[in-house]
Amino acid sequence: MPTSNYFQRLKKIPAGTTVIAGPCSAEDQDQVLVTAHGLLRLDVGLFRAGVWKPRTRPGAFEGRGELALSWLVKARQETGIPVAVEVANAKHVEAALRAQIDVLWIGARTTVNPFAVQEIAEALRGVDIPIMVKNPVNPELMLWLGAIERLQEAGCQDIAAILRGFSCLSTGRWRNEPLWQIAIDLRQHLPGIPLFCDPSHIAGRSDGVAEIAQEALNLDFDGLMIEAHCCPEQAVSDAAQQLRPEELGAILAKLAVRQRTSDPGSACQQRLLELRTEIDSLDAALVTTMARRMAVSRAIGDLKRTNNLTVLQRSRWEQVLSRARAEAERLGLSVRLTEDVFKLLHQESIEIQQQILKNDDAPQSPQQP
Ligand code: PEP
Ligand code: MN
Asked: pTM for this one?
């Protein structure tokens, strides 16, 4: 179980999860206050707004800077909701601390840079302030993990992680690919760190937020960070993905927050146990089959070596793959899954056989006289 930290104590929406919301950028005092009041009714646990915006090209809106911090403080005074800003360097940290901002976050473009993260960590040494770390823009678990470790080493106690998706130049449906498995892996490394999902930056469009938010809750995320703006069509950054507070309210009302476990002794728990026993024995059979398949690959490798044959036999590989595809189709199994598994198996066979040939090519040790 994760240890209780600041993020687990934040206010939850009635469905039982934590929602961090607010505009992409603080644009003016009115926009900040009107948006914060609109979110008050939704039981938002933390109000977010960027005041320093990392922009791809110069000349774009770069945030209102330090001045905007006072608008956030005013929003907190009027609504009681704690406030969070993005920091990208030590100067931002110092300004946010002076303004008594409650929570900081590190954005995706900063998490990629260990120098910048280290600078922020140094600025936070000895300071007790909760901090959230978005995933890096590129799909590298270790950079995300490394950023969190730098903060931990500087003594930060209250750290959360945010999955905001990865920039993969994909032609997929979303602005940033969620690559959920990377967040699942992060959680395995750091079970005590609360994990949030930012469906706004994943979807890139307000009409995709509900679907991704629900997927995150199905995957046991601890909460959501969602961009909300009192008037999204006038937003100066990320206009397409921001929701009006009332639109966000409608989405939150429909979210299903799932239970982590069922009651011990219940019929559901009993049936789950039976099914999991079946899965366990199928998994054991899968591993045994893979081991036997690789033993046969090794024998084939020996034959190829003694008969001077290529490791890759293109027509044979096409035959293996098309047979597996046809069998998957016949059984109603995902062809994509089948192809992925077979490609991995084939790659492993190739590596085993390359190794066998390499041993053959290695210079012979000098003959003993
Ligand atoms: C943001 O939260 O507005 C932001 C800039 O996000 P990211 O770092 O995920 O791009
Ligand atoms: Mn944004």
From this structure: 0.89
